[in-house]
Please model this.
Amino acid sequence: MQGVIKCGNCNCEMKTEEREFANGTKHTQLVCPRCGRKGNFVTSIADEDYKMPFGKYRGERLYELARTNASYLQWVLKNLDVQKSLRDRIGRALQQPKLA
Ligand SMILES: [Zn+2]
Model:
């Protein structure tokens, strides 16, 4: 987990907000829930927080999908031309130790 980042204006805890640009890329930006101040884009999302950016499981956490729908993630790796960063995340999610 990433550490808490405080807003420079009102010192409350910044939240992350997902934004999708016209070209389809997604970024996570820090936003203050009180004053609306926008912070930096967060480029490195922890693996366990990363969500599927497209497809029928869009918005679901990769790590959750790896447990409940590993065959779908394997299908994505095999059949879709996905970015290397996503490919790496899916690979790591599939290799996580299975939880009881
Ligand atoms: Zn603020």
Strands lie at 15-20, 26-31, 38-42. The longest helix spans residues 84-95. Residues 42 and 55 are 23 Å apart (CA to CA). The first strand starts at residue 15 and ends at 20.
